[in-house]
Amino acid sequence: MKNTSTRSADGIESIMHTYGNMLFRLCLITLGNASDAEDAVQETLIKYLQKAPKFENAEHEKAWLTRCIQ
């Protein structure tokens, strides 16, 4: 599979630091299981890496990540 992502490892680490807990809590509330919540967060981050979307601001990025979970 060809990697077309423009996200750096530092960028992903920053996203996890900024939004990781929020994403996990949202998934945990929705799914009711910590293991499933961890998987959902991981899948969200994979989508983020693969699509490498451009955002207007931090709120737009946050909205994209939370929408990706649903």
Number of helices: 3
Number of separate strands: 0
Series of H and E elements: HHH
Q: Uncertain spans, ≥5 residues at pLDDT below 50?
A: 1-5
Main sheet: strands, sense, barrel: none
Q: Tell me the Rg in angstroms.
A: 12 Å
How large a portion of the residues is in β-strands, by DSSP E?
under 5%
Helix content: over 70%
User: What is the residue-averaged pLDDT?
Assistant: 84
Q: Helix/strand/pairing class, anyone?
A: mainly alpha
Task: Based on Cα principal axes, name the global outline.
Answer: globular
Q: How far apart are the first and last residues' alpha carbons, in Å?
A: 26 Å
Description:
The chain has 70 residues and is mainly alpha-helical. The protein is 76% helix and 0% strand. It is built from three helices and no strands. The longest helix is centred in the N-terminal third of the chain and has 23 residues, at 9-31. The model is unreliable at 1-5 (pLDDT under 50).
How is the secondary structure organized here?
Elements: H1 9-31, H2 34-51, H3 58-69
Helix pairs in contact: 1-2, 1-3
